[in-house]
Amino acid sequence: xxxxxxxxxxxxxxxxxxxxxxxxxxxxxxxxxxxxxxxxxxxxxxxxxxxxxxxxxxxxxxxxxxxxxxxxxxxxxxxxxxxxxxxxxxxxxxxxxxxxxxxxxxxxxxxxxxxxxxxxxxxxxxxxxxxxxxxxxxxxxxxxxxxxxxxxxxxxxxxxxxxxxxxxxxxxxxxxxxxxxxxxxxxxxxxxxxxxxxxxxxxxxxxxxxxxxxxxxxxxxxxxxxxxxxxxxxxxxxxxxxxxxxxxxxxxxxxxxxxxxxxxxxxxxxxxxxxxxxxxxxxxxxxxxxxxxxxxxxxxxxxxxxxxxxxxxxxxxxxxxxxxxxxxxxxxxxxxxxxxxxxxxxxxxxxxxxxxxxxxxxxxxxxxxxxxxxxxxxxxxxx
Length: 383
Description:
Blueprint: H1 2-25, H2 30-34, E1 59-62, E2 67-70, E3 84-86, E4 92-94, E5 199-202, E6 205-208, E7 228-230, E8 233-235, E9 248-251, E10 254-257, E11 275-278, E12 281-284, E13 296-299, E14 302-305, E15 323-326, E16 329-332, E17 349-351, E18 354-356, H3 358-361, E19 377-378, E20 381-382
Antiparallel strand pairs: 1-2, 3-4, 5-6, 7-8, 9-10, 11-12, 13-14, 15-16, 17-18, 19-20
């Protein structure tokens, strides 16, 4: 009898493991980006990706090979070839590819919806009906409340038995508690200064920064001819605040986020219809960039300062003498670092025959949390 039972057990285990693998394959590849330990390490190679935001600006994730593929840097979808669109990283990506929405800050993720209930088992012997699965009850931590889970699947009908009843509706996630890294999701606020670095004050509540606030750049060369990349966002030069987008101020020659409250509002109800209160400022609601001003973009449903990357060039004629336009950046050819001394844009290191900045040659960081306290990440260097 044993010699028949053991092979049957092995077959059952194999089917079970196969089912697990199939279930994992059904996850979007973003799951692997957020749960590397479940996916055998992330990323296993410098060009390996699970979604577009794993790649630098100017490249997208090829879903047939899961490798970062060189694309075109853009400032609008009109600049992209057919079948492509311009994403928030200012990169032409295939329409219908993986979303490039940024992840939440290190302080905590958005609260997830309650899990879907599991179906009940068949009644033993066809007498007892299968019990309905219960709804998910997990509250999101470090973020805003999740939506309610769907009803559980009905139980499998036993031989001669009745079908199991549906599961109850999952509970919505509550306001996030203090997340790892100091997130303050769910706490009351009057300005961004009342929230952690990974949150912003929206309608009187600290909430995770919107998708557009996820890192969109790493190097200064991704931010046009005169911009700089600081803490994962492009900051552009200015002399007055009128040259900056909504919510930004002109400080030390660059448009930067204003951490102080504008004093216009605390809650959305303090603003006109169609506006939201962000950091004490009433911002226009939107569904697309065209509904915002020339210095703004639409992100998270409201207009905010444009901190997206911009191409330095589209051709050699956009660059200086003896420079080449390579991947939307003006580059100077070199044989050694001595050939880069004449560069006046900080590109002092010769790497692979081109002059690059020290941060490009040896990157130290991507955002401020990669550096020590009171330091910022500028051009991939902790300063």
